[in-house]
Structure formats: C-alpha cells, structure tokens
Model the fold of this input.
Amino acid sequence: MPAVLQRPYVEAVDRYTPFHAALLEGLALAGTPAVAASAEATAVIRVHRDRVEREVLTISARNTPEEYELFYTVEFSVEVEGQEVLPRQVLTLVRDYAYDETAVLAMQHEEEDIRRALARELVVLVTARLSALPAMPRD
Done:
C-alpha cells in the first residue's frame, strides 16, 4: 500500500455488512490497519454504497423460484487531507445459485455464504485499486 494509506479510516453508511468487515480485515492483512477516528487517519476511505440485491432468475411450472441471482455492489472513494485522490468507483459482482424450496434454512445459509464470498472478492478488487494510488508527498 502507498504511504498515504498507512493509517486509513473507513467511513461507511453501514458498519455491519460483510463488505465492511472484510475490508477492515483486508486492510489489516495488507499491513495498513484502519484507525478508529478520522482525525488519526492519513486517508479516508468512504464507502458510499454497500448493497446486496437478489433477483429471481428462473421459476418452476408451479410458479416457485428455482434459481436466484445475487448482485453485490459497493461504491467507494478515497480522500487525503480533504482532497479526493480516488474518485467514486463502483464495483459489482454477480453470482447465481439454485434454490430448493424443501431446504429453506440451508438455502438461507448458502445465500449468506455467497454474500460473504462476494464481499471478500470485492475487497480484493478495492485493495488492488488502493494499492495503485500514487504515493503523495506529505507537507
């Protein structure tokens, strides 16, 4: 990670999403753990949108869902000393999965697992973009 991201602060609309948790973990693994207050930060990572949507892909002859598609979208930007250094970026990942109405609880768990997996994949994409930020001289 560039020096400007040595002490990032993550500002998010919702701090209880799979993406937020995975982002904090990803930053820590990259050697740049997030700080607790923006005043301590060298950069602010703003998560403007963190949303999962589900759509029915196919339905059976009995008019019940057979397959769903999950869309996980995040929108983020980076600010350093009040200046936006990475404008808003929108990333969306999509996965589909079969649905079995006889195993509703198992399907709910599978959907949660998919949400967490998509969040981790989005964090890989976000950290790649963050690591590509140019090193900015500090005054």
About this structure: The chain has a mean pLDDT of 90. The longest helix spans residues 104-131.
